[in-house]
Amino acid sequence: MRRFGNAAVILGIVLLGVAGALWVTRPHWEIPRAVALVLGAVGLLFGVYANFGLLRDLLSRRTARYGINVAVMVLLVLGVIVLVEAVSYRHNWRLDLTENRRNSLSPQTKKVLQGLAVNVQAVAFVRPDQPQKRVTEDLFKQYTSYSGGKFSWQVVDPDRNPGLAKRYGVQAYGTVVLEAKVKDQIKEEKLTDAAEEKLTNGLIRVTREGKRVIYVLAGHGEKALGSQERTGFSEAKSAIEKANYEIKELILLRGEGKVPDDAAILLIPGPQKDLLPQELQATEKYVARGGKLFLMLDPFVADGLIPFLQKYGVTAGRDVIVDRLSRAFGGDYLLPVVLQYESHAITKEFNIATVYGVVRSITPQDKPPEGVTVQALAKSSAGQGSWAETDREALEKRGEAAFTPGKDVPGPVPIAAVATVPAKDAAEDRKGAKARVVVFGDSDWASNNLLNVQGNRDLFLNTISWLAEEEDLIAVRPKESRSTPVFLTASQGQLLFWLPVVVLPGAVLIVGISVVTRRRRIH
Asked: Which of 130, 182, 300, 455 has the maximum number of C-beta atoms within 10 A of its C-beta?
């Protein structure tokens, strides 16, 4: 019987090994794995029963007792390690010490993940030998931890799974495909790589219905959408499109002379000439229908918009903000650096400086029109640090600026305001809706030159999200990862080579030889 018991033990160990191999290589083979596990356990138990007498004799020896004590201690240590691992898996904490926290998810990404209403599947096509495989997996794990089970993922080798790669039309390594079911429709989004900004914007596109249209007014010297010059608007256009909006140019004097009904937002970025009366009338009708207006009005130009804005409780000053604080940031007095924001959905938890070009004051009226709610959004620095300069001649001709009591307005001076306006002509299904108006006293802050400076990009996109009534997207956006190379002089490079490669090993070798020589002399 003992011979059969020995065979049963060997067979049991083999079957348990097979069960473990199936669990690793074929996790979906649940029935064969369970059969191998059960048969292996039965084989081991039968072997123990058949050799019980021999085991009892062995366990009664002193060496066996010592061995059992060691085994128990080892098992206790392993048990503690397993317990710590289990607890840390459920309750873990990460510390990101990188310069721009590139290994931590941004607030906007967390908001998007926590607000997922549908399940999203991510498939990354990466070869096992590619360095980005581990980076992609780590990013996916972070997304999963904030999604509440709505985000699932897998990393696939396209060379071993050509059928899946062909199904998604994948041609390049590193491609990520997002897939979600929105109202019985399967939506797919293909990304070139698994960077956080691309992945989060892809999530927004794949989980939202349709694409909202933003119309940008043209014909009055506004910022050019396609221009890549310093004063162009191509960076802003790209940022808007990445956030799942469609952007179109609008000339109101063409066609029906009205803002299209599908306009989610009407953007007027820095007109240099006044709008014609019929254009102002078309814009006013759009707001009355519950439209969303985003106006950037530069100093001393298009003053015909000043009475238009007063209808919405906003006063645009005929002045320029002078800010001494900007000197501390390397700019001149006419490039205000704003650190003060009023409490609003656009600036909630927003504590990043924003930088502006030449900017005029935008002040909420103390007594706005009936039904209109208006407030300041951002202000220049307080005290004697800034003021609204009204002497245009001194600024332009002599390049001088000095605070004049009773004439100039001391800081903090509002440079942006936001208003909600009753939609008097809203459609039947939108009765009681509110139009939204945001006005900035400068358009350069959203140009190619300044959009990516400090918090300008985030504030711009937060304003777009609020106007489009997508407050869940208001947050600080993901930052692009930056490489920080170390540059060494020739002497520093030589020191870095000789110290760890030659000096330290040589010192250890000399100490070792001296110790051995000394011991031999003693003995």
From this structure: 455
